[in-house]
Design goal:
The protein has 2 domains: about 25-55 and about 145-210, Immunoglobulins (Immunoglobulin-like), CATH 2.60.40.10; about 55-145, Immunoglobulin-like. It contains 2 helices and 17 strands. The chain has helices at about 1-20, 210; strands at about 25-35, 45-50, 60-65, 65, 70, 75-80, 80-85, 95-100, 105-110, 120, 125-130, 135-145, 150, 155-160, 165-170, 185-190, 195-200. It binds copper (II) ion.
Amino acid sequence: MILRQLQRIAGAAVFAMVLAPHSQAGSLQIQLTDARDRNAEGIGVVVETSTPEPLPTAPPHAVMDQHREQFVPRVLIVQRGTQVSFPNTDRVQHHVYSFSPAKQFELALYRGNEHPPVTFDRDGIAVLGCNIHDHMVGYVLVVDSSHFGFTDRDGRLVLNGLPNEAVKVTVWHPDLGVDYGVINRTIDLTSGKNTAEIRLDQAWQSKQEASLSWNDY
Ligand SMILES: [Cu+2]
């Protein structure tokens, strides 16, 4: 009985392997270090593919909070078409705006969740500010990709569900002081390689942690 079950499972496994298309989803591990060979944490990584992105059934949603007179997170990466909410959890009112070509909008003086989300429908970087607090600066990077994230403490990011092809890896953070697209690599996932080691030519200290200290609120 058990043997027959095992045979069935083994048969199913072989069947699944045969059925797997050539463009089977792959994964990529990005390892980021800085000029001093330290792991670079909190840096945005975007992987672009030539396979068209499947249209999401519903618009993706993201949140950029305002907390202790800071945007949290300070840097957000979203897929084009994403609706971003900007709740204000401070007691003071904020007046959020962007004059960037990627998205121009204004959320007049508010607290809480007064305003509906903003749809980011164009690629590029929207730099956000607050009319009341000049020190508040946030960034929304809008990309034509659903494959992105930020490097962890070990300077690492793993992205799954990638098509089996040559993909373009772009690394960006406003504190790097370079335009989006300047630091990039092409990685051919068909070669069996699924790691990308990228070394920055500058020293890096993650400033993002400071703005993410929710605990001591
Ligand atoms: Cu403000």
